[in-house]
Amino acid sequence: MAILVTGGAGFIGSHTCVELLNAGYEIIVVDNLINSKPEVIQKIKQITQRDFKFYQADLLNRSELEAIFESNTIDAVIHFAGLKAVGESVEIPLRYYHNNVSGTIILCETMAHYNVKRMVFSSSATIYGDPQSVPIKEDFPLSTTNPYGSTKLMIENILQDLYLSDKEWSISLLRYFNPIGAHKSGLIGEDPKGIPNNLMPYIVRVASGKLETLSIFGNDYPTIDGTGVRDYIHVVDLSLGHLDALKKIMLTKGINSYNLGTGKGYSVLEVIRAFEISTGQKVNSKITHRRPGDIAECYADPSKAKIELGWTASRDLYEMCLDAWKFAKQQ
Questions:
Q1: Residue 222 lies in a domain
Q2: Catalytic site positions
Q3: Domain-embedded: residue 271
């Protein structure tokens, strides 16, 4: 069984490739390397001691994608590929809509042409907008506050319509909360090009001396300590959720959405403290103004994934911090 992994050199994609290979799957990885590094492919092979095909290609290039499907027997697709920086999406929205939405449409058209109708899609909790209550369930109203989130919601709608038009499709929509951590080996982890978009890469850069101070955006939210609360999940737990979703789509038809989170919310200050305790490293921080579009708290109700996929997150915040630091020290 061969699984095509788009965006397989990225943060979540690379960890999922490792778990797929460890579980005995054959994988084919496609990545344009815009926001990832080619050496990640070699590190996946090093961790797993397994080989696989890698294509540096862009989903917007239909002929390249068709050539990959033509020369391989593909059973299902796990679709990670996409631009993902919230702030950047506000600055260059057309690029985000073109890349994320058009790329997915071309992928789905190519899949249909080659009769590959099983997909696990990398969605996001950003599509819940500013929820009226927490924890968040899959049937909550959907809305977005930025173009990145809008592309994820738009793609979910496209995939819903695709299934309605052809009931042979089997699709899992995985709504991620906040993945952090790294592989135990320290060989792969979150290593964004340019300015980080997430909290943990900033924390490790301050701890390692690459940045002087961590800016905490607002301490006047209605939360436990005034800082924003999020559901942080270990990237390996998140990756294992893809394997459970893959098993489901191989056996059933339909389209279903699942929250992948721990069900626990941690504030920015709680994450900083957990990092300092688990690693012994001091993180200098300062309070600054809120960022436009940020919400007070966001954490999952992951019970549907537990019931229908048999998946739960098992790694705690201290392990997430320790693994992220181990990866950072090896860079």
A1: no
A2: 148
A3: no
- Residue 131 resides in a domain: yes
User: What is the rounded distance in angstroms from the CA atom of residue 16 to the CA atom of residue 213?
Assistant: 32
Q: Mapping DSSP to helix (H, G, I), strand (E, B) and coil, where does residue 225 land?
A: coil
230 φ/ψ angles, rounded to the nearest 5 degrees: -135, 160
Q: Which helix (H) or strand (E) holds 198?
A: none
* CATH code of the domain covering residue 8: 3.40.50.720
Give tens-digit pLDDT for 220-251: 999 999 999 999 999 999 999 999 999 999 99
Give the total number of structural domains in the chain: 1
Tens-digit pLDDT profile for residues 71-97: 999 999 999 999 998 889 999 999 999
Locate all alpha helices (DSSP H) within the chain, ordered by sequence: 11-22, 39-48, 62-71, 86-91, 93-96, 103-113, 147-165, 199-207, 235-251, 268-279, 303-309, 317-329
In a domain, 138, yes or no: yes
DSSP letter for 290, please: P
- Token readout for 98 is 């073109």
pLDDT number for residue 291: 82
Q: How far apart are CA 284 and CA 203, in angstroms?
A: 9
Domain residues for the domain of 241 are 2-180+231-261
Alpha-carbon distance of 124 to 188, in angstroms, equals 22
| CB 302 within 8 Å of CB 257 | no
pLDDT at 293 over 90: no
